[in-house]
Amino acid sequence: MPGAGKTYWGRRIAAHYGLPFIDLDEYISSNEGKSVAQLIQEVSEETFRDLENKYLIRLIGSTDNRVVIACGGGTPCFSGNMRTMKMAGIVVYLEADLEYLYSNVQRDGDIRPLLGKTTSVRYQMERLLQLRRPYYEQAHYILQAKDISLTTFDEILGNV
Q: Is the pTM here over 0.85, yes or no?
């Protein structure tokens, strides 16, 4: 979900283990020459999800080495992406309650394409969380976002 800390923790984990880090949204933007918000606005969310799937598969297929990828909050919910991600590596769901997510999104000030279309960001986040949770809960590991530390990931990766 937006505000869970995917990019923040992805960068920290990658640095901690000396691994490359890729933010899927940044990868898409770099390849398309437009922000995710622009793409969704210009081509529709459905077309963006097709692009997202294409780039996820390209990214996974382009590396034989270990890499940390932070995907967008909707990525696991479309095009069989969760299954693709689970087959490619370890999938971690950073679970957080609505208050935590909302607080982080408000503090970030980043443009969130699917949240900016409504007058009630909080309501939209709650709706998205309800729709997405069943997909997120298919992850290999479910971690409480507010309680994570690098030690948490040491324990996970120690089991691999």
A: yes
